[in-house]
């Protein structure tokens, strides 16, 4: 019996004490317990001498900078507090509505680490070439995205204009191929460091979010050579309002699918860091895909070790996306591009309409969960957004 | 006769009152006058009622956020102060040494807007295809880089490790093809805004720096498909310590070379914004190239209008690079890749050695200037860096 509603302690509650994701509400930084938020300011007096400075902040930035030992200490103390029979003095529970982007995004990198996704995209865009490019099995392919347009779940997404390919030369207008990419995002913290080994990389990941890498496929097809995606992605990238701490995934760890060749020593991980997270992608309430994150060939410690192998510094607030999560089955594809096979095979929604790409007014909601201790469920907070018509 | 050394007022002094670039020294934000810096804190009492709040800062961030009207007011007042016969009360001149990175880089974007560079690279890397890809004449091709590894001039650059292409599969080690790219960088400010017209874009550019986009060509060749450059560029990007205000370039404006096709209306500029800046690229004291910025096909207002045409917000501290500046002549090429034609034609330094790419211990220094009013010279502060051996 906890002082918090018993509902937060049932095995199928994804945001119980086994999860305790961090976010920012009007009262400052908070942990989510069920459908309520506990502002840490309200329990600062119960957190021990080292922690109150951090929890008085209006963003998670100081906590991200503090590093793993502080993250572990704070989490342990919070699990105790929410599980206690009586409420800590001053504790308040407030609604989770209105949660803000909880940290300042430093650099944002997006990877491309699902083999199924990379092969599907290769088959759709380069039908006369091998599906997978030669570098793909040797390194986690990635690129930098726009940190300034990372937005919190719930932010509407305006259909972007851009140059679109056409037979007589490019035309300008609203994208006709607005898409989503279901991804898992990793939020970095700890001291600023250069090159990280895979095991050091684990220590620099604070937590995990869902990430929707909105994409304009026609813009991407025209602009993308030779320097990669630019405006096709930079109009908006949505992330969960609540960051699930990495420590919540201890039970969800699995071995990733093997690569067909040995990898360079700096990419070898001495323990498995695949994560058994299952994502649900909903469009207007219809679940259109259930991408399995355990199918990703490259894991987050490999991605972060690769990102920094050239000496690039990793800063608190750095965010990197896994790349679109797609599994081997058709219903496991994490983008509409794949689900509609480049627009050739529209799919049905429960309301009787069909989609190849998104229409104005569509709402895309992604949720996800992973197995937790003792049969519990660890949740990733939803990432949702509704398409506004082009201006 | 000014209270400042007469040397700062000779026509060939690139950092006289016609230039007055901003930077940050130990005493806070400052303008450079000749080879000295005037900390604005020391003249805060002479700047009028609105300005002292900004000039007490330890970085240019508040000034960048303030926007064009404040930039113009401050510059006008500073020109008066440095040109006055007697020193303002409290004014100090301090050495320019030790200037820091003067602002927090928000997002960093790199363009590719020299036709000569794009064609040279196309010929070197894709000898059996057309030199220019079809999109190049329709939009300023660009991509996002890593904001967190932008460093100030003088910062040593460690030779990065990476995966390098080899006949039996990739090998891992220090890059063997370490290169430079001579670019002009633009520092943004003003209120956070989405889509900007070309004329609005001009109002959001605070000033101009030299930018060396260090590049590992072998890493780039292996990693770059299909998502563009990543680790080949993200280890370091060097910029001048002093930002020359855009207003200093009024006399340097020229029409850019015409494109072979009409451009979309959002890319039309109603007044010319090519800039007659000539760069000198020096390696260990030998001038190896003099790239002419007036040869760039896409101008900075077009680049910023393109960057934001999808609604992407532009924030104070956003930095974008022009792309490598190369002219039509061999000695005008802004990268060693081009100067040595992919390593096939090593070039000589004055010390009798030759180079295709950089060796450990090499120092690369770029300087640049443009015509100013009344025959004066407007300088861009140097950007320099020395290569340290791989760790």
The quaternary state of the protein chains shown equals homodimer
Q: Which second-level CATH architecture of the largest domain in chain A applies?
A: Alpha-Beta Complex
Strand content of chain A: 25-35%
**What is the overall silhouette of chain A?**
globular
How much helical structure, as a percent, in the residues of chain A?
10-25%
Low-confidence stretches of chain A: none
Main β-sheet of chain A, in a few words?
8 strands, mixed
- Mean pLDDT over all positions of chain A: 96
Per the CATH scheme, the topology name of the largest domain in chain A is Fumarylacetoacetate hydrolase, domain 2
Number of strands of chain A: 25
Distance between the termini of chain A: 53 Å
What class would the helix/strand composition of chain A place it in?
alpha+beta
CATH class division of the largest domain in chain A = Alpha Beta
Q: Provide a count of the helices of chain A.
A: 8
Radius of gyration of chain A: 21 Å
Number of structurally distinct domains of chain A: 2
The greatest inter-chain interface is formed by: A-B, 56 and 56 residues
CATH superfamily of the largest domain in chain A: Fumarylacetoacetase-like, C-terminal domain
């Amino acid at each position: 019996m906890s002082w918090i509603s018993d509902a937060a302690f049932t095995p199928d509650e994804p945001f119980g004490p086994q999860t305790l994701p961090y976010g920012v509400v009007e009262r400052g930084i908070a942990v989510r317990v069920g459908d309520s938020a506990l502002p840490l300011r309200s329990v600062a007096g119960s957190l021990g001498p080292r922690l109150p400075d951090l929890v008085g902040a209006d963003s998670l930035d100081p906590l991200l900078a503090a590093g793993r030992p502080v993250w572990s200490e704070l989490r342990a103390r919070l699990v105790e507090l929410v599980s206690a029979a009586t409420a800590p003095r001053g504790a308040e529970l407030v609604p989770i509505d209105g949660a803000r982007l909880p940290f300042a995004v430093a650099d944002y990198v997006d990877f491309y680490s699902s083999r199924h996704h990379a092969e599907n995209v290769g088959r759709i865009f380069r039908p006369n070439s091998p599906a997978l490019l030669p570098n793909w099995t040797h390194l986690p392919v990635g690129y930098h995205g726009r940190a300034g347009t990372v937005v919190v779940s719930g932010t509407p997404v305006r259909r972007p204009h851009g140059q679109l390919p056409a037979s007589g030369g490019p035309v300008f207008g609203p994208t006709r191929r607005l898409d989503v990419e279901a991804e898992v995002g990793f939020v970095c913290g700890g001291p600023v460091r250069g090159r990280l080994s895979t095991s050091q990389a684990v220590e620099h990941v604070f937590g995990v979010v869902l990430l929707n890498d909105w994409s304009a496929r026609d813009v991407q097809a025209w602009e993308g050579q030779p320097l990669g995606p630019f405006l096709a992605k930079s109009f908006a990238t949505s992330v969960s309002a609540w960051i699930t701490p990495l420590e919540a995934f201890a039970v969800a760890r699995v071995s990733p699918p093997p690569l067909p060749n040995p990898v360079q020593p700096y990419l070898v991980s001495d323990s498995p860091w695949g994560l058994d997270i299952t994502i649900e992608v909903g469009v207007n309430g219809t679940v259109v895909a259930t991408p399995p994150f355990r199918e990703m060939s490259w894991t987050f410690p490999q991605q972060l070790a690769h990102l920094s192998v050239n000496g690039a510094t990793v800063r608190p607030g750095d965010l990197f996306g896994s790349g679109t999560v797609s599994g081997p089955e058709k219903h496991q594809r994490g983008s509409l591009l794949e689900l509609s096979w480049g627009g050739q095979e529209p799919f049905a929604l429960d309301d009787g309409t069909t989609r190849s790409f998104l229409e104005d007014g569509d709402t895309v909601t992604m949720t996800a969960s992973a197995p937790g201790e003792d049969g519990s469920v660890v949740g990733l907070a939803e990432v949702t957004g509704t398409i506004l018509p082009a201006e």
